[in-house]
Amino acid sequence: MRKVVYGMAVSLDGFMEGPNGETDWMSYNPGDSNEYIKPFDTFLLGRKSYEIMMKMGASANAFPGIASYVFSKSLAKVAEGFNLISTDAVPEVRRMKNAPGKDIALCGGALLASSLINAGLVDEIVLSIQSILLGSGKPMFQNLDKRIKTKLVKMKTNPGGVVLHYQVGDQA
Amino acid sequence: MRKVILGVAVSLDGFIEGPQGEYDWCFTDQDYGMKAFMKRIDALFVGRKTFEMIGDKAFRRKKHYVFSNTLKKAPGETEIISGEIGAQVKKIKAMKGQDIWLFGGASLTTTMMNAGFVDELSLAVHPILLGSGKPLFSELKGRIKTRLVEAKTYSTGLVMLHYLVL
Lengths: 172, 166
Fold this sequence. Notes:
The complex is a heterodimer of chains A (172) and B (166). An 8-stranded mixed sheet of chain A has the order 5-4-3-6-1-7-11-10. Chain A is built from 4 helices and 11 strands. The longest helix of chain A has 10 residues, at 89-98. Helices cover 21% and strands 37% of the residues of chain A. Chain B has helices at residues 34-40, 48-54, 86-94, 106-114, and strands spanning 4-11, 15-17, 41-47, 63-67, 79-81, 99-104, 120-126, 128-129, 134-135, 144-153, 159-165. In chain B, the strands form 2 sheets. In chain B, strands 5-4-3-6-1-7-11-10 form an 8-stranded mixed sheet. Chain B has a two-stranded antiparallel ribbon with strand order 2-9. The radius of gyration of chain B is 15 Å and the shape is globular. The chains are: A alpha/beta (172), B alpha/beta (166). Chain A binds chain B through residues 10, 12-14, 25, 117, 125, 127, 129, 131-136, 139-141, 144-152, 155, 157, 161-162, 164, 166, 172, and chain B through 12-14, 18, 25, 113, 121, 123, 125, 127-132, 135-137, 139-148, 151, 153, 157-159, 161, 163.
């Protein structure tokens, strides 16, 4: 079965974005992200994360060989190269996991990630903790409905901070 | 100058307590560098609510400074700090002695961070998502840069992260 890996950069106080959606505090290392995306052939994006990517000038061509899916019930269409999914994410992702292919990278946002975690569909979490306190902002999870144990599998430091890699375990 | 070190346990999703104040998820099976840390410090900064929970007996031979505007009496050597804390904290930091453990809770921690009194952060990141609870900081006034100086993993999956506040 394909794994779903939730990977994101967060501030030391656990925010994915500043209070006004700022992402300028994230250090970005192209070498690291090329290495990171190797096991994947599929990206999953929430509506907001997709809109942020678009604002940053991203295009589907930037990731050859990767199919990108945007989950949104409000968007009518998405840019060329992206696939819009307007039905419930949970059954869709469950179906994807059982289909053949490489692993699936969940790129955000918090709501999509939380509903997939609540449904037990996320296998791993990779947190790139940046060495900054934002003070306020958007938390990395929203509406998790129970405690979840994780298992640390890898830790790596880099100039931006520390990357922690966990397997998602059972309900704690 | 004595350093003030915020030392707390946090969940992977950044909470220091569960939604009902739970801290049963904190690991107590091994030392996690606590012995060495206790040798570094000779005093604690504690908020009133936290002090009422832990008392003055949990950390023997350490000077307890309790921050409160309502508390009138405290046992033994414990000192109550009230009113404008700025000058008093500066004075304590300038006193001869070892470093000071900023123990919590959240409101004292936030005040100390906003005033620029915290020199280091020592976070014991636990391998658990709590889902909700009390965040590490509430109402920081703005961004604060830090530098990671040490990251240490333990067999249980706990990661000890040590930062300098810049």
